[in-house]
Specification:
The complex is a heterodimer of chains A (316) and B (318). By secondary structure, chain A is an all-alpha fold. Chain A contains 16 helices and no strands. Chain A folds into 2 domains: 83 residues, no CATH class; 212 residues, MetI-like fold. In chain A, helix 10 packs antiparallel against helix 11. The relative contact order of chain B is 0.12. Chain B has 2 domains: 47 residues, no CATH class; 234 residues, MetI-like fold, CATH 1.10.3720.10. Classes of the chains: A mainly alpha (316), B mainly alpha (318). Chains A and B meet through helix 1, helix 2, helix 5, helix 6 and helix 7 of A and helix 1, helix 3, helix 5, helix 6 and helix 7 of B.
Chain lengths: 316, 318
């Protein structure tokens, strides 16, 4: 994946668009009049795009306030509120249905995402640093294999991983989800690229001359410099584990261990196939609504960190 | 992969000569470089356990055939011969290939247009739009597919009302003829924003002085966008394409989730991954499922490698 040449730059901080765009804005002021018409066109296009991307979420928000009857035949139609406001009833319903198993699923999702994400990040930071700052035997060979691994489709690993885990007796335990989630070749790659530029060798040498050991140099000198990349890799791997569907679907069967993605999918399959008693459309919709809130809030409030980071490695 | 050589070797640490004889410094240096392995070791263990081992094991399993009558026997590449002549697998492979042909350009186009438009603006609306276009990335794919399943459904969705406004009957989004487009739409909705952010960041990294120069040469806005900006971010575009290609060829979650609401339109073997899943978990044919998984892995790997090779000029790969 040489597109992401390790010579690549440290991430450009796109969050700081304020200053960047101000200077660009003033440079362009001369064309302001000519650009006026196009600006309106651009804004119209943007509004259309925003409507497209936001409508499903708007639908979800509205639908979460309806009971099952309201979902089918609401007075306001699918895209507007019903005459009754049932959000809190639905949330109460999530606590009652099957003994409140929904909240357990949500908790499982959190647990898997945090433990898998943090674990993967720690491994990626260590390995990225090792690759970037030491010339050990076999480094280039291993790193080439790792780059190839970025292109191995992770889902192709699910069935073999299932068979391996079942031989180890780990199927249907939390380890079956967490341990495979620790693997993040792309995270290692990003950390290596970032470390290469963010931690100057001279600084490490200076620390060593001052008598710091390799570990102390890593923790006290290098780690603070790597913070932006660490946050990015953490976000990417937490989101990756949170999103994961194929792996938990394959390796978990105990309903108490499912993450919320697989759990809601089961409810939906049951509701489609089942009789009246199993149709919990309102709970599926409300469950989906509640489960997307944490990540949306996290993304909106952590903008500063991910906007620069997501593009890390993509810049030339 | 050529780029490992591109990595600048750490500068030699012999900053203070003379004091000790050279060999001793070299030995110390070599000893220090061994620390690299310690840093890499934890990841290496996971890498071997959950990537190399499953792949190796899958390969080994895929060389065997297990039947009730004769038990398990070693049959070399028989399963691969079976896979690449299995019409169901080939049909699935063809289907993800046609998804790749339609879906990737669709996502790229939306992402590129959005990024180019956003790059030109610095208004409050553009900032807000950037976030809103990105938000679907924060939604788990399963939830996204569930949501669109509801929106497509004639029972819950708004399509009947919206088409009713202009006096039309809504199409059935979940029928055999429309499910392809419906899936393309879900994936585009889910990922275009993420790709947009990557492309946008690359655009932000370009020195605006270049645009001024182009403008002085008489280029208009569209020419600047297509002839200056797009070529300058080609390496990001290649990366986005690779992500999209790898993701599309292993298409699984969306069709698997939509299957429940569109059972007639999506068979269990709709994509190679779904086929492998049902072989393994509905029919317990783990040997053949491993062969399918492995074959798919090879196709994806070869496909993305080939793509990188073809675009080596754009991506800067030597």
């Amino acid at each position: 994946m040489a597109i992401l040449t390790p010579g690549a730059t440290a991430p450009v901080d796109v969050t700081d668009t304020a200053t960047g765009s101000r200077s660009r804005g003033s440079a362009r002021r001369g064309n302001a009049g000519r650009d006026g018409g196009r600006k309106i066109g651009s804004h119209v296009l943007l509004i259309i795009l925003v409507i497209y991307f936001i409508t499903p979420l708007w639908w979800l928000t509205v639908a979460a306030t309806k009971d099952t009857a309201g979902l089918f035949t609401g007075s306001g139609g699918p895209l507007w509120f019903d005459s009754e406001f049932n959000l809190f009833n639905n949330i109460a319903g999530l606590f009652e249905h099957q003994g409140g198993i929904y909240w357990r699923w949500l908790g499982n999702s959190f647990f898997y995402a945090i433990s898998g994400g943090v674990g993967a990040t720690i491994l990626a930071v260590l390995a990225g640093y090792g690759f970037a700052k030491y010339r050990f035997r076999g480094r280039n060979a291993f790193f080439s294999v790792l780059l190839g691994a970025v292109m191995v489709p992770m889902t192709a690993l699910v069935i073999p991983t299932f068979v391996l885990l079942s031989n180890m007796g780990l199927v249907n335990t939390i380890w079956a989800v967490i341990l495979p989630s620790l693997l993040s070749p792309f995270g290692v790659y990003l950390m290596r690229v970032y470390t290469q530029d963010a931690v100057p060798d001279e600084l490490l040498d200076a620390a060593r001359v001052d008598g710091a050991g390799e570990l102390r140099t890593f923790f006290q000198v290098s780690l603070p410099l790597l913070r932006p990349a660490i946050v990015t890799v953490l976000l990417l791997s937490v989101v990756g584990t949170w999103n994961n569907f194929f792996l938990p679907l394959a390796v978990l069967s105990d309903p108490n261990l499912l993450p919320v993605t697989v759990g809601l999918n089961n409810w939906q399959a049951l509701s489609n196939a089942g009789a009246g008693g199993e149709q919990v459309w309102n709970l599926i919709v409300t469950g989906a609504f509640v489960s997307v809130l944490p990540l949306i809030i996290a993304f909106l409030s952590l903008q500063k960190y991910w906007q620069g980071g997501l593009s890390l490695g993509a810049l030339k | 992969m050529a780029l490992t050589e591109a990595a600048p070797a750490p500068k030699p640490t012999v900053a203070r000569p003379a004091r000790r004889p050279r060999t001793q410094i070299d030995r110390m240096d070599r000893k220090r470089q061994r620390w690299g392995w310690l840093f890499v070791a934890p990841f290496a263990i996971v890498f071997v356990t959950f990537l190399v081992a499953p792949l190796g094991y899958a390969f080994w399993m895929s060389m065997q055939t297990s039947t009730l009558a004769t038990g398990t026997s070693f049959t070399w590449f028989a399963n691969y011969g079976k896979a690449f002549t299995d019409p169901i697998f080939l049909e699935g492979l063809g289907r993800v290939a046609s998804f790749a042909l339609i879906m990737i350009p669709a996502q790229m186009l939306v992402a590129l247009v959005a990024a180019l438009v956003l790059d030109n603006l610095s208004t409050a609306l553009s900032k807000f739009s950037r976030l809103m276009i990105f938000v679907p990335y924060a939604i788990p794919v399963v939830i996204g597919a569930l949501m669109w399943g509801f929106l497509y459904s004639p029972r819950f969705g708004p399509a009947t009302d919206i088409f009713g406004l202009v006096g039309l009957t809504a199409p059935d989004f979940l029928s055999q003829g429309t499910i392809f487009a419906s899936l393309v739409n879900i994936v585009t909705w889910q990922w275009a924003g993420y790709y947009m952010i990557i492309i946008y960041a690359a655009l932000r990294g370009i020195d605006p002085a270049i645009y001024e120069a182009a403008r002085l040469d008489g280029a208009n806005g569209r020419q600047i966008a297509l002839r200056v900006k797009v070529p300058m971010i080609s390496s990001s575009m290649v990366m986005v394409l690779i992500f999209a290609l790898i993701g599309t060829l292993q298409f699984f979650t969306e069709p698997q989730v939509l299957r429940a609401v569109a059972q007639g339109a999506i068979p269990v073997s709709y994509t190679p991954n779904m086929y492998a899943y049902s072989l393994a978990f509905s029919y317990s044919q783990f040997n053949y499922a491993s062969a399918i998984s492995f074959a798919l892995g090879i196709v994806v790997f070869a496909g993305s490698y080939l793509f990188l090779f073809l675009t080596r000029k754009q991506s800067g790969l030597k």
